[in-house]
Amino acid sequence: MAKEKADLGKRVVAGLIDGLIGGVLSVVIPFLGIGYLIGGAYILTKDAIMVELLKDPAWKGRSVGKKIMHLKVVGPEDSDVDIELSAKRNWPLALGQLLSFILALIPLRSMAWSTWSLIGSVSSIIGIIEIVLVLTDPQGRRLGDKLANTRVIEVAEEGPSAGQRL
Question: Does the pLDDT of residue 163 top 60, yes or no?
Answer without folding.
Answer: no
